User: Fold this.
Amino acid sequence: MEQLNTFRRRQFLKNWAYGLGSMALGDLLVRDGYAAAPNPLAPKKPHFPGKAKSVIFLFMEGGPSQMDLYDPKPALTKYHGKPLPAEYTKDLKLAFTKPTAAALASPRVFRPCGQSGIMMSDYIPHMHEVADDICLVRSMHTEAVNHHPGQLFLFTGSIQFGRPTMGAWSVSGLGSESQNLPGFVVLSSGVGTSGGASNFMSGFLPSTYQGTQFRSGGEPILYLSNPEGISAATQRAGLDAIKELNEAHLADVGDPEIAARIQSYELAYRMQTSAPELLDFSKESPETLAMYGIGKEPTNQYGTNALLARRMVERGVRFVLMMDASWDTHTNLNSALKKKTMATDQPVAALLKDLKRRGLLEETLVVWGGEFGRTPISEIRNTSDPDNAGRDHHPSGYSMWLAGGGIKGGQVIGETDELGFTITRDKVEVHDLQATILHCLGFDHTRLTYRHMGRDFRLTDVHGNVVKAMLA
Amino acid sequence: ALYRRTLYTSWKRSGPNPALLLFDRPFRETCTTRRSRTSTPLQALNLLNDPVFLEAAHGLAVRTAAEPNRIDRMFSIALGRPPAESERQSLARYLDRQIGILQAEGRPAEEAWTGVARVLLNTDEFINRN
Assistant:
């Protein structure tokens, strides 16, 4: 009897909510974010046709050392081992190092690469071959001096935790071209990222848009396999029954969220079969595998992720974030940086070449860089070891590069002073980079907004200008 | 951690509990007056395939093993109302199909009741307060 009363009350409330006022209320529910539209990942049109259909963000967590890779500073040799003139260091605020620390010249050898003659160091020989495809920015500037805020700023446009990330914005704006895979996928390599899940969260956007993190070892997607004792036939029979009950429930109450639930169960089931196909490299040629450095050390892990990224954009995944840790070379700069570049240089260059020869680079935007750069002065944590010197975090002048969809390759944007402390030409703020990435996807960054807590939010907050010089 | 209620798991700001993350847990940066409600394939994979939910389904089957109207009892435990006749029939048809599958696989037919529970625990009505 008690159950019967509950039943009646519930039925009454349902009929009131969904029966009488269903049309108006349904609309309000959708707009308030209470209920999802039938397929939140269906492909959507951007503000204008974008050159890029998808993004592969090669995030080098920790802050790669620009003056040992992309921004040569021969003048540092003059001051090597000595403190720098105060005019360079008077406004410096560093995480660990005092501004009076000695200068650290780079032992790297730079040479001009490609037709464009972009100077690159001997640590990244494979990148030399694709110099004419990249737009190198030597004048990046960020607001944060430490890792987690720096990563939040790069990916969400705010150092405050909780905003949606670039990948989530992209998928919410464009939907997904893939019916069998998530729209936003995260791959990781190396050890530890400070930002972790906050680099791919959806913030206050619906969680449909958050990044799906494939794991770097073991099962790449959690719970992708049926649990022990559940066969394929059992799984399908269960899903059919779930669908039948959900459909009956949908017909009864008309809540669009139930339709979304039915779809997500079916996508989950399709992912159980499509994801293993994605992960299976047996149909890739030995030449392709060798190009990425798959099957040999130290390139295997990053090469595998890079090839996966290509396979994902081929299959319609909108945004791939590859997080590689850690480029945070406070100590043992030369050996630590060598290790990082040995593991990633070949796969990164291979990704650009492979995308290009398949005609995918034109519609895929590739971005490389960290949350900040590193200082021209040295950080010494162990004074008894002469090889111990490293570099501290440097937010006020560092390098990143972009390539592919919508970007004009073979050029350098911006410049830092002769010692690499400050930007002397064409400063590019993180919000400008974000505005430019969204532009390549076809969005006016000021109009890609989401109402939350009474106001419209956007990736670039109230800042950002598209850097027109970067565009093709 | 498998058998620990999420209420008691430790809270790591940048490394949140995966199940909580999948189910739209608030970020704790600001007051949350209403929790957002989404449905993603990862939630489906979690509820279908995480062993803890399979064991929960098994628990519901064991708990109702002696009930004369087992489908009805499971249904009302899970959803707080008796099934409509069409729902009862859907589950009965599923039960028959599942017993057939298990027999073909040489597994005990009793497992089909875990299947019924698993279906109920994955319905939208169970996941959300409708």
